[in-house]
């Protein structure tokens, strides 16, 4: 799997969703979804894009199990956090408030694990992270 391509493409989808939400909120005059909009843009667009650039700039081994875990926890964590946040705040289906809360918490926790894996990776593969050619 090309980690850079994957992250940049998924980030572009989140950027489109976030921009659409922002446009919709501005046009409608309501800011009820602003926290969700902000998280979609920050963790969905900016973080995933930054991770993609990280894998492009620094030559992290393609067979790294840590990098593979980072990619998938990032993907599922962003999805879980943003969709869970939307479910939690909008409650679109009556009677699912416990499910919505758990979805939100689990998504956020998976994303936290992804950021922890990223931090570990920057130290484990530190020899690849340098200004020297």
Number of strands: 0
Give the structural class. mainly alpha
Task: State the order of secondary-structure elements, H for helix, E for strand.
Answer: HHHH
* Cα-based radius of gyration, to the nearest Å: 17 Å
Sheet of most strands: none
Low-confidence stretches: none
Distance between the termini: 25 Å
Outline: globular
Q: What's the structural domain tally?
A: 1
Helix content: over 70%
Give short descriptive properties of this protein.
133 residues, mainly alpha, 4 helices, globular, membrane, Cyt_c_oxase-like_su1_sf, transmembrane helix, Cytochrome-c oxidase
Descriptive notes:
The protein has one domain (3-128). It has 133 residues and is mainly α. The model has no long low-confidence stretch (mean pLDDT 93). Helices cover 78% and strands 0% of the residues. It contains four helices and no strands. The protein has helices spanning 3-28, 34-57, 65-90, 97-124. Helix 1 (3-28) packs antiparallel against helix 2 (34-57), helix 2 (34-57) runs antiparallel to helix 3 and helix 3 packs antiparallel against helix 4. This is Cytochrome-c oxidase. The chain crosses the membrane at residues 7-26, 38-57, 69-89, 101-125. Keywords: Membrane, Transmembrane, Transmembrane helix. InterPro entries: Cyt_c_oxase-like_su1_sf.
List the helices and strands and how they pair.
Elements (H helix, E strand, L loop, with lengths): L2 H26 L5 H24 L7 H26 L6 H28 L9
Describe, in short, the structure shown.
The chain crosses the membrane at residues 7-26, 38-57, 69-89, 101-125. By secondary structure, the chain is mainly α. 78% of the residues lie in helices and 0% in strands.
């Amino acid at each position: 799997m090309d980690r850079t391509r994957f992250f940049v493409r998924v980030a572009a989808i989140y950027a489109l969703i976030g921009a659409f939400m922002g446009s919709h909120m501005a046009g409608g005059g309501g800011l009820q979804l602003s926290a969700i909009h902000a998280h979609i843009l920050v963790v969905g667009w900016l973080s995933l894009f930054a991770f993609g650039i990280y894998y492009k700039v620094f030559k992290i081994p393609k067979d790294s199990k840590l990098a593979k875990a980072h990619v998938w926890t990032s993907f599922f964590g962003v999805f879980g956090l943003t969709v869970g946040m939307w479910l939690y705040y909008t409650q679109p289906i009556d009677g699912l408030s416990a499910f919505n809360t758990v979805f939100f918490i689990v998504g956020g926790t998976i994303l936290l694990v992804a950021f922890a894996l990223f931090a570990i990776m920057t130290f484990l593969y530190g020899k690849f992270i340098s200004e020297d050619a």
